[in-house]
């Protein structure tokens, strides 16, 4: 579904991403791990169109989407959540998701099916799938941090993506919230058929749900393989099992 080839991005003289390579097959859950500053968020920004790469290719369903604007990439079926929560704080939970659904429906708007009505049903479905139905009327800014992160995922689902990209989906969550998010990610993948690419500092979570793992260091892919091979890789052992901070 997605193939990243030799992607590179520099800020001034500083190269944040170089030689980044990654493959995500349809239906897979793939994790990117690496120390702070390794370039994970920048890589995601390059894939989703927040940033334009200096060089390299991002092939999504056979088409090079590198450098396309965010909204075009979103319409092609890629949606993402952010490392730092990014929601409309003063809108309700329901409205936050409805805005995302409406943005997608606009292009299919016709005289016979009022978009807002369609959006209500789809918004309720999404809230149900992530377990936020009971909090639909809450003001988003009043939610717990864990619920805000889940709401972000719900917003990302509003554009009906095929590939969902999650930047540290459990950052700052309590153990209970993390366990809930883990089940949610599994459910989105297995029951709703979403392909998921995520980065995460919680190694237990990574090794529990990722079918493949890409390890980044100083902007480069150092290994991309199944969890067992990654766990046994000497470079990974030296960098992570020696106790370094991951993600
Ligand atoms: P990670 O998500 O793996 O922690 P980032 O992708 O956020 O890493 O950052 C990679 C490196 O690029 C860091 O050294 C960071 O300071 C730098 N960086 C990220 N965004 C910018 C930017 N907009 N301008 C300058 N440097 C940046
Ligand atoms: Mg980051």
Main sheet attributes: strand count, strand direction, barrel closure? 6 strands, mixed
Q: Which structural class do the helices and strands define?
A: alpha/beta
Low-confidence stretches: 243-247
Q: Termini separation (Å)?
A: 24 Å
Number of domains: 2
Total strands: the figure is 10
Average pLDDT reading: 91
Taking strands numbered 1, 2, ... along the chain, how are they ordered across the largest sheet? 6-7-8-3-9-10
Tell me, briefly, the overall form: globular
By CATH, the architecture of the largest domain is named 3-Layer(aba) Sandwich
Helical coverage, percent range: 25-40%
H/E topology pattern: EEEHEEHEHHHEHEHEEHH
What name goes with the CATH superfamily of the largest domain? Answer: P-loop containing nucleotide triphosphate hydrolases
Q: Compounds present?
A: adenosine-5'-diphosphate, magnesium ion
CATH class placement of the largest domain: Alpha Beta
The number of helices is: 9
| Radius of gyration (Å) | 18 Å
Protein model, in words:
The chain has 247 residues and is α/β, with parallel strands linked by helices. The chain folds into two domains: 1-77 and 161-247, P-loop containing nucleotide triphosphate hydrolases (Rossmann fold, 3-Layer(aba) Sandwich), CATH 3.40.50.300; 87-159, no CATH class. The protein contains nine helices and ten strands. Strands 6-7-8-3-9-10 form a six-stranded mixed β-sheet, with helices on both faces. The protein has a four-stranded antiparallel β-sheet with strand order 2-1-4-5, with helices on one face. Helix 3 packs across helix 4, helix 3 (93-105) packs parallel to helix 5 and helix 4 packs across helix 5 (145-157). Residues 243-247 have low confidence and may be disordered. Bound molecules: adenosine-5'-diphosphate and magnesium ion (MG). The site of magnesium ion (MG) has 3 residues, from helix 1.
């Amino acid at each position: 579904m997605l193939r990243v080839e030799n992607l590179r991005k520099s800020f001034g003289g500083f190269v944040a991403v170089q030689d980044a390579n990654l493959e995500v097959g349809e239906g897979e859950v793939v994790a990117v791990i690496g120390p702070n500053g390794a370039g994970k968020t920048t890589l995601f920004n390059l894939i989703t169109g927040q940033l334009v790469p200096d060089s390299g290719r991002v092939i999504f369903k056979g088409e090079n989407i590198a450098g396309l604007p965010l909204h075009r990439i979103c319409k092609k079926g890629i949606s993402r959540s952010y490392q730092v929560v990014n929601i409309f704080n003063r809108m309700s939970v329901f409205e936050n998701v409805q805005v995302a659904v409406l943005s997608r429906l606009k292009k299919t708007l016709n005289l016979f099916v009022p978009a807002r009505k369609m959006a209500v049903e789809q918004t309720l479905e999404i809230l149900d799938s992530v377990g936020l139905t009971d909090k639909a009327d809450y003001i988003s800014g009043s939610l717990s941090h864990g619920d805000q992160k889940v709401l972000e995922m719900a917003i990302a689902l509003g554009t009906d993506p095929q590939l969902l990209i999650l930047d540290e989906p459990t950052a700052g969550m309590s153990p209970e919230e993390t366990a809930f998010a883990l089940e949610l990610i599994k459910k989105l993948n297995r029951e709703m058929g979403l392909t998921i690419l995520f980065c995460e500092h919680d190694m237990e979570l990574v090794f529990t749900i990722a079918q493949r793992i890409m390890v980044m260091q100083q902007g480069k892919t150092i290994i991309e393989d199944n969890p067992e091979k990654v766990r046994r890789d000497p470079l990974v052992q030296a960098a992570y099992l020696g106790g370094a901070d991951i993600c």
